[in-house]
Design brief:
Helix content is about 40%, strand content about 15%. It has about 375 residues and is of the alpha/beta class. It is globular and about 60 Å long.
């Protein structure tokens, strides 16, 4: 068989697919630029993982043993943390894996998934991989959900909708009423609370009355475990049990499991870091707002989305030029080359000195454009 014949056997929709836009590995960049990098592009935790988690990993004696497919210790710890019974909890290899697993439960080839861009890029990516059809209902200019548009977007093939709350990259939260309205539309609603610890509320309390609700959370952002990949899902116990059945048995590895449990035992330390990051988010927002050409949006997450005025005109937006100028100074922020975000940058809350460094560099780069 030649490769062309093999390619013709591949599932339709996959060969021409555009992959997920990942952030660059920091070591590659550090070598390229030859200086300390201020990394504000990935919403990672600059305060690292908890000391207890690192100590537990250093001492851990069971790396040669497979993980527990039923994740009993981790789900027990998560039960104490969330207030939900362990029967309502499933852990995943990052919450990204849980997005994928929920899609597997509900999406047949050609089924539709509602999406409200601008939002997390993992949704379109994983919907495509799952063979689903993404139906975009863009948010309004202020990023609130277009509830009428969403209602109108529902067809007999609509199965599911994703909402990140706080939303990435806009930082705003969905209201409880809106989630209730969506739940009443007769579709599965997945509320992605990846930034829960930085925000003021949760809609997890709606789970007991709404078996069509899934809540996703992660240890990546607040607990500094992005590299170890631990997330979890809260949902009706029958659905949790099904997710446990269909997932890969060893989806969460022993290091991730041990680190997540240790993190929950080090919660005061981690909460203190979350408070510092929330303060820094506010300082960053205020600092950005002092530039007449920048308009930061209020955020309940660990990042701030910021609109950038057009300075020079031409093909390339000023936001992108600003990103490039900052990058040349070793400061990384996120630019999205997508509809509605081409004049925006997303900047993670970092250490106080990161914010100082960024704010100083912005003025310099802007004046040089
Ligand atoms: C970062 C992020 C995630 C990914 O979390 P992992 O647990 O690292 O896979 C999920 N959803 C949103 C909205 C995010 O911003």
């Amino acid at each position: 068989m030649d490769i062309d014949s093999v390619e013709r056997l591949i599932r339709p929709g996959l060969t021409g697919m555009r992959g997920y836009d990942p952030v660059e590995p920091i070591d590659v960049l550090q070598r390229e630029l030859g200086r300390r990098i201020v990394k504000l592009d990935g919403n990672e935790n600059p305060y690292l993982s908890s000391p207890r988690a690192r100590e537990v990993l250093a001492q851990f004696p069971y790396y040669h043993i497979y993980p527990d497919p039923l994740q009993r210790s981790l789900r027990e710890s998560l039960s104490a943390y969330t207030g939900f019974a362990r029967q309502n909890i499933v852990s995943g290899n990052g919450s990204d894996e849980l997005i994928d697993l929920v899609l597997r439960l509900f999406i047949n080839e050609g089924d539709e998934v509602l999406n409200a861009p601008p939002t997390f890029g993992m949704y379109p990516f994983l919907v495509t991989v799952a063979g689903g059809r993404l139906v975009d209902v863009p948010r309004s200019s202020g990023f609130s959900l277009d509830m009428e548009g969403l209602r109108a977007g529902i067809s007999p093939r609509t199965r599911l909708m994703f909402i990140a709350s706080p939303n990435n990259p806009t930082g705003d939260v969905v209201s409880r009423e809106q989630v209730c309205q969506l739940l009443d539309m007769g579709i599965i609603v997945v509320v992605d609370e990846a930034y829960f610890e930085f925000a003021t509320g949760t809609v997890a309390g709606l789970i007991p009355d709404n078996p069509n609700l899934f809540i996703l959370r992660t240890f990546s952002k607040w607990a500094g475990l992005a590299g170890l990949r631990v997330g979890y899902c809260l949902c009706h116990e029958r659905l949790a049990s099904l997710l446990l059945t269909v997932k890969q048995p060893y989806n969460v590895n022993v290091a991730g499991e041990a680190a997540a449990i240790a993190s929950l035992q080090d919660i005061d330390h981690l909460r203190h870091n979350v408070e510092k990051l929330k303060r820094e988010r506010e300082r960053l927002t205020a600092g950005l707002a002092r530039f007449p050409y920048l308009q930061p949006y209020p955020s309940e997450a660990n990042f701030v989305l910021c609109r950038v005025d057009e300075k020079a005109g031409g093909e390339v937006t000023t936001a992108r030029k600003l990103r490039d100028g900052l990058r040349a100074r070793g400061i990384l922020v996120r630019f999205y080359d997508s509809e509605g975000l081409r004049d925006c940058l997303r900047i993670s809350a970092g250490l106080p000195e990161d914010t100082d460094c960024l704010l100083e560099a912005i003025g310099e780069v802007w004046n040089g454009l």
